Amino acid sequence: MISVAEATARLLLLVDVLPSEQVPLRAASGRIMAGPLTAQHDQPPFPASAMDGYAIAGNATAGDMFRVIGTSAAGHPFGRPVAAGVAVRIFTGAPLPDGATRVVIQEDIARNGDEIRITTDPGPATHIRPEAGDFAKGMSWHPKTPLGSRDVTLLAAMGHNTVPVVRKPVVAFIMTGDELRMPGETLNPGQITASNGFGLAAMVEGAGADARLLPITRDTVDSLEQAFALARDADLIVTIGGASVGEHDLVAGSARDAGLDMAFHKVAMRPGKPLLAGRIGSSTLIGLPGNPVSSMVCGVIFILPLIRRMLGLPPELTETSHVLAASVPANGPRQHYMRGRLSPEGVVVEPRQDSSLLSVLARADLLVVRPPDDPALPIGHRVRTVMLPR
Q: Exposed end of the chain (fewer CB within 10 Å): N or C?
């Protein structure tokens, strides 16, 4: 067996950043930009009014009179310059007429026909948004996080209707086991409902990948061969179940027959010991244990960093720390990822840690990371934690 750190290092060597593709701006939310984009124009592209009011040239004090000679509205600029003694009715966002140096807000104006009078000292504010006051042509934008609504708004304002993004990793999931039936199907004696493939698919989709859930594979070499053939164009193939060494655990042998170049098999962790990984053709393969909690924990610890690596993001897990709200017993020889819940007093480690208990996983907020042979820990001790994705 190898350590979790060694398994992670070997896994990350199996993948690289995926190629880029162009997508419409409308489809860019949640994607990772493959390179920077630059602004195609200044924003705003002209000096603009920040308020509704009157554009004038020169200073303004209470009692000053002006003759109104036109209107400037958004999309409809006033086409002539403004000189002393005249004003242009202007609205928020409208281009400032040439020669105008300030906008007097309409609340400080009394109007009679084409004549206006400043009724209140307008103060020093000009109420003008300068040209390129937001950003200048050529400004670069390249966030290193998934694009959100604010990024999309900025890219649109910069003049872009398409965005270069890293192609989404395609992840094919192969659930194995004669006992498995799809959710909603009637269970006969000895059968169980397949669950972890659905959870893992949701997990990787939340991380920015495309998930492909293949039909349930039976415990036969022929069935596994067919599944590997169906998944051969995926960036990452994830088998669930059959990764151990029992008579019905056929994944390792079938994967070798399909051309697997094994990177490792078995990790000193709990849950998740039977994990295997390697390369099949152009795909990376991860073989997960069949216990649902084991597979989901391995998804957090190993698969999510791979997805991030393929998207060009930092692959490292974001660890946090919390104090224990209750004591925990000594740990065994394998690194243990214990399900825990957050409370006002700290983290409460669930008393039942069996790798089949999905209800415990669903209630958990995080995983408490216990190193090998960690001693018993008292209340108030600070522990390493990894937050669980929903």
A: C
